[in-house]
Amino acid sequence: MGHGFSTLLYKEVLRFWKVGSQTVAAPVLTSLLYLLIFSHVLEAHVKVHGVSYTAFLVPGLVMMSVLQNAFANSSSSLIQSKVTGNIVFVLLPPISYLEFFLAYVLASVVRGLVVGAGVLLATFWFAPLTFVEPVWILVFALMGGTILGSLGVIAGIWAEKFDQLAAFQNFLIMPLTFLSGVFYSINSLPPFWQQVSHWNPVFYMIDGFRHGFFGVSDASPWLSLSVVGGCLVLLTLFTLNLLKRGYKLRA
C-alpha cells in the first residue's frame, strides 16, 4: 500500500470526523431515543433469553448503528464526489482499485465502530452488560461494518443523484436492518416470518453480535459466521469487479 491509500483513508476519516455532531452524535442520540421508548414500554412485559428487554435491546441498537453508519459513510462520500465532480481528483492519481476499495471501506468501518462505541457507552447506564464472548462481538462488528461499507461503495457507484441513493437506503438497507431482530427475538414470530428472517443476512450479523454479550442467540454463532463470511466474500469480489471495470466512474 502506497501513500495514495493512506492519504485517501485519512481524507475519508477526516471527512466524517470534522462533522462529528452530524455523523457521530446524531446517530448516538437516535439510538438512545429508541432505547428510552422501547424499554419504557416493554421492559416490564418482555424477557428474551433470560435477560431483561433493555439488556437484550442494547446490542441490537449498537450493531444497527455500526451497520447503518458504515453504509452511510462510503455511499454519501462517493455520491457527493460524483455530484460535485471532484471524484476525478480521486481517480486520476495512481491509486489501484484495491486501494480505493480498502480506503473507503476501512473509513466506513471506523465510523461504524466509533458510533457503535458511542451508543454502547450512552446506553450502558440503562443496562450494564456482560461480555461473555468478546471475540464474537469484535468479529461480527468488523465483518458487518465491512459488508455495509462495501454495499455503500456499490450504492455510491450505482447512484447518479441523491434521491437514488436515498431509495437504495430506504428500500433495502433500512428494511434489512429493522427486520433483523434488533428489537425482538425472531423466535417470537410466526413460523412463516421466522423462515423469512433466516433469509436476511443482517439477522445473522445482529444475532452473532448479540451472542458475544449473552452467550445465547437465536441461531448458532458458527452458522451466523458462515453466512456473514460468505456474504463478505461475495460482496467484496463484486465491488472489486465494479471498481476494476470503472463502472460509472470512468468514462
C-alpha Rg (nearest Å):
18 Å
Give the strand tally: 2
Report on the biggest sheet. 2 strands, antiparallel
The N- and C-terminal alpha carbons lie at a distance of 26 Å
Elements, N to C (H/E):
HHEEHHHHHHHH
What is the number of helices? 10
How many structurally independent domains?
1
Residue-averaged pLDDT, rounded?
Answer: 91
Q: What would you call the shape?
A: globular
What is the helix content? over 70%
Quaternary organization: single chain
Low-confidence stretches: none
Strand coverage percent: under 5%
Structural class: mainly alpha
Strand order of the largest sheet: 1-2
Describe the structure.
With 251 residues, the chain is an all-alpha fold. It has one domain (3-245). It has helices at residues 3-17, 20-42, 53-84, 88-91, 97-123, 134-158, 162-178, 191-197, 201-214, 221-245, and strands at 47-48, 51-52. The chain is globular, with a radius of gyration of 18 Å. The model has no long low-confidence stretch (mean pLDDT 91).
